[in-house]
Design a protein that fits this description.
Bound molecules: thymidine-5'-diphosphate, magnesium ion
Shape: globular
Strand content: 25-35%
Mean pLDDT: 87
Low-confidence stretches: none
Distance between the termini: 79 Å
Number of strands: 21
Helix content: 25-40%
Structural class: alpha/beta
Number of helices: 11
Radius of gyration: 27 Å
Largest sheet: 9 strands, mixed
């Protein structure tokens, strides 16, 4: 029976479809997300079909690990889990202007430099624009490698599919961006749920049959999810987010899903005049502008994926202005956790900060999600409250419980190693109590200051005046 195009109102957030327009999507609760789209309604089949039999295998059979295509950018490889896997699909998401196109252009040029056949399709920029950008980036594409990097400006998925099928040489294909792609036969505009899903489906199907690695670039909405259907995240093998604050030069590539590697890996880059530069030692960069002798600052030894990274926590206290609750302005950390630590400092350590406005900032535009930052935040707060700087050679990590006790966090030795590597001489950490794990051995030259209760840390500031 022929398919019948019909008008439907499709929620751009969750894809629920309605016969009539309405302000609120009843499925996901979002407002003003319904858009008119022409969809093809396939009549329901009434005859039961009989399929062929599946050929099944046993789990314990032999298998070879997937071959990887090295992306040419070490930080990118780390996040991918070792490089591109042929036939796999990677979605690179991020805010507009964060540097997705730059990253992928640098990666494709590096790939071409090592002799891989690559196709970069842009639906957003003209060929000349891409060329100019490559020149500005000073990308080192060797003359003979130029034969292996194909550029195209197109939004037509049918054309792209035909080209790929006919040429059948490309090992890596980049689509910039999936929201600009358009498939004939789908009547809604590029960027709509139906288009994005149908275009992605076509390209993914081809990647699996022809065996090339496919990279889809996707824009992220204000709310932080990928514009277009969420379902895109389910269709691909890996979802990488390119994050950062546009006011800062740091960019972090983070894996949110990866079928071929760990999801907690990050790659750190700095956006410079000549493109993205890899940052193999992020700690040094994040601490580069630190002034050790100012009250209200503490160094936190954190973990980003498997990597230890040192960051600076800064706190500013000022007497509360106006009526009502004091201000809690937090950048890069969790306001609820800050409130918890303020409450613990007040209730368990007698440090009253409830009449103060608190401003907390993690420098470098980094976002910390680990509770291990509690101790560094507490140290910065105590330092700001007492007006005494933390020791310039000290770094902190540890989780704080509601009774003020300090709790162990993971990867103590890894954190200690990074602290020592950056030239710090003291590490403040939770007291070792566990009988199941061995006492951490500090690297040479690093002394461990074990803290059992938060009030011990407060005492260090108020009694000795140093920490
Ligand atoms: P772009 O890769 O176009 O972002 P996206 O594809 O994620 O939308 O990056 C654009 C921004 O990067 C732009 O605002 C300028 C900045 N930029 C630099 O700072 N240095 C550079 O060498 C390049 C190419 C871009
Ligand atoms: Mg772009």
């Amino acid at each position: 029976m022929a398919k019948k195009p019909t008008i439907r109102f499709v929620c751009q957030n969750c894809q629920a479809s309605y016969l009539k327009w309405q302000g609120k999507c009843e499925n996901c609760g979002e407002w003003n997300t319904l858009e008119e789209e022409k969809v093809e309604v396939t009549p329901r089949r009434t005859i039961a079909l009989k399929g062929g039999g599946l050929s099944t295998v046993r789990l314990d059979g032999k298998t070879t690990p997937p071959q990887r295509i090295h992306s040419g950018i070490e930080e990118f490889n780390r996040v991918l889990g070792g490089g591109f896997v042929p036939g796999s699909v990677v979605l690179v998401g991020g805010d507009p202007g964060i540097g997705k196109s730059t990253l992928m252009l640098q990666a494709t040029c590096a790939l071409a430099g090592t002799g891989h056949e690559v196709l970069y399709v842009s639906g957003e920029e003209a060929i000349d624009q891409i060329r100019l950008r490559a020149q500005r980036l000073g990308l080192d594409v060797k003359p003979d490698a130029l034969n292996t990097l194909d550029l195209a400006a197109s939004i037509n998925v049918t054309d792209i599919v035909t080209t790929l099928e006919e040429r059948h040489v490309h090992k890596v294909v980049v689509i910039d961006s999936i929201q600009t792609m358009w498939l004939e036969g789908i009547e809604s505009a590029p960027g709509s749920v139906s288009q994005v899903r149908a275009c992605a489906f076509e390209l993914i199907r081809l990647a699996k049959t022809l065996g090339f690695a496919l990279v889809l670039i996707g824009h992220v909405t204000k709310e932080g999810s990928l514009a277009g259907p969420r379902v895109l995240e389910h269709m691909v093998d890996a979802v990488l987010y390119f994050e950062g604050d546009r006011g800062h030069q740091f960019r972090i590539l983070r894996a949110a899903k990866n079928r071929f590697g760990a999801t907690d890996e990050i790659g750190v880059f700095a956006m410079t005049d000549s493109g993205l530069k890899e940052v193999p030692n992020p700690s040094a960069l994040f601490l580069a502008e630190r002034h050790g002798n100012i009250a209200g600052s503490a160094v936190f030894a954190g973990l980003e994926g498997t990597r230890p990274v040192l960051m600076e926590v800064q706190v500013l206290l000022s007497p509360k202005t106006g009526e009502g609750a004091p201000r809690r302005a937090v950048i890069g950390w969790d306001t609820a956790r800050l409130n918890m630590i303020l409450a613990v400092l007040e209730a368990r350590c007698g440090l009253k900060l409830s009449s103060m406005d608190v401003y907390l900032n993690i420098t470098g535009g980094i976002k910390i999600t680990e509770p291990a930052a509690d101790l560094a935040v507490a140290a910065a707060l105590i330092s700001a409250a007492t007006g005494k700087p933390t020791a310039s050679d000290a770094a902190y990590f540890g989780e704080i419980g509601l009774s003020g006790e300090l709790r162990q966090v993971s990867q103590t030795e890894l954190r200690l190693k990074e602290i020592a590597k950056l030239g710090f001489r003291q590490a403040f950490l939770p007291r070792h109590v566990s009988s199941t794990s061995a006492r951490p051995r500090p690297p040479q030259g690093l002394s461990l200051q074990e803290i059992g209760h938060l009030s011990d840390l407060v005492a260090l500031f108020t009694i000795k005046g140093v920490s």
